[in-house]
Amino acid sequence: MDRKFMERSLRVLRRGWTAGFGRRARRGGLDRGMTTSEYAVGTIAACAFAAVLYKVVTSGAVLSALQSLIKDALDAKF
Q1: pLDDT 10s digits, 21-72
Q2: Which residues contact 34 (CB under 8 A, 6 or more apart)?
Q3: Spatial contact of 12 and 19, defined as CB atoms under 8 Å apart
Q4: DSSP conformational letter for 75
Q5: φ, ψ of residue 32 in degrees (nearest 5)
Q6: pLDDT higher at 34 or 14
């Protein structure tokens, strides 16, 4: 491909991209951020995930696996 063709193609793509972006902005289709309800749902989901992760990490099987891993690491011969 020659250089002029690439430059022209990039110019056309940029023009199309900015035109589409401007149209959406004028119609109000751009999201500027999350709404309060989205923050609430996101916070609840994060808290639920944290609770599940806490339960998994503090379960007996995981604690014993972590203890054996640390014990093996400390007893390693160098």
Answers
A1: 666 666 665 556 667 888 889 899 999 999 999 998 889 998 899 899 999 9
A2: 42
A3: no
A4: T
A5: -95, -10
A6: 14
How many Cα atoms occupy the beta-carbon half-sphere of 34 within 13 Å? 8
pLDDT band at 13 (very low <50, low <70, confident <90, very high): confident
CA quadruple 65, 69, 72, 73: dihedral, nearest 10: -170
Do 59 and 52 meet the contact criterion of CB atoms below 8 Å apart? no
Q: Which residues contact 17 (CB under 8 A, 6 or more apart)?
A: none
Q: Which residues contact 30 (CB under 8 A, 6 or more apart)?
A: 24
Give me 55's structure tokens: 């339960």
